[in-house]
Design brief:
One of its GO terms (molecular function) is AMP kinase activity. It catalyses: AMP + ATP = 2 ADP. One of its GO terms (cellular component) is cytoplasm. This is Adenylate kinase. The protein is built from nine helices and eight strands. With 217 residues, it is of the alpha/beta class. The protein has a single domain, classed as P-loop containing nucleotide triphosphate hydrolases (Rossmann fold). A hairpin with a 6-residue loop joins strand 5 and strand 6.
């Protein structure tokens, strides 16, 4: 099964993508992982991407598309994959369709995780990270530390990342609305989109997503 997961920042795409991929036995392919893998392995695409990233510039679509194509051609993706963060715009969506059409394949489903904008801001702006270990993450409302500003696990200082600040989050949402949201209409025209509420317990959202997938048996 070939699935695309879309939704605004803070919708929980990474969490749901990992859970869905595990449930379905297919690889989770995220843009961030593609960049990290290609850069660490020193591939030509990775070197080209790093040149742009060092200058603080956006990586061109052709490089991202090339990385995604290479990853989807790996043996573990022969029976399907779950895409998270790619395609990010209409040009990438059209390129993905072309890649799949060339090998006689197509997407089976596009799951659109829906979250109210105020909730997105609350989720992201409330996060606090531990300076000593970034895997220790808290939230001022949902998972507050026992002592304000102090990590429960190691006692490190908790802080708010610059890209988690409310003004930055709202700018990220503007980019999502202008660049990524149009691909939802693109796939709706193909009859592939199911919109799901991403509110509630993580396990509940996962069950909603699994129930929305087509029966390809």
């Amino acid at each position: 099964m070939r699935i695309l997961l879309v939704g605004p920042p803070g919708a929980g795409k990474g969490t749901q993508a990992a859970l869905l991929a595990k449930n379905l036995g297919i690889p989770h392919i995220s843009t961030g992982d593609l960049f990290r893998a290609n850069i660490s392995e020193g591939t030509e695409l990775g070197r080209r991407a790093q040149d742009f990233m060092r200058k603080g510039e956006l990586v061109p679509d052709e490089i991202t598309i090339g990385m995604a194509k290479d990853r989807m051609e790996q043996p573990d993706a022969a029976n399907g994959f779950l895409l998270d963060g790619f395609p990010r715009n209409l040009a990438q969506a059209e390129a993905l369709d072309g890649i799949l059409t060339d090998v006689g394949l197509a997407l089976d489903s596009v799951l659109d995780l829906e979250v109210p904008e105020d909730e997105v801001v609350r989720r992201i702006a409330g996060r606090r990270m531990c300076r000593q270990d970034s895997s220790h993450i808290f939230h001022v409302d949902y998972t507050p530390p026992k002592a304000e500003g102090v990590c429960d696990v190691c006692g490190g200082e908790l802080y708010q990342r610059d890209d988690d600040r409310e003004d930055t989050v709202r700018k990220r949402l503007e980019v999502y609305h202008s660049e990524t949201e149009p691909i939802i209409d693109y796939y709706k025209a193909q009859g592939l989109v199911t919109t799901l509420s991403a509110l509630g317990a993580v396990a509940d959202v996962t069950q909603r997503a699994l129930a929305a997938l087509p029966d390809t048996a």
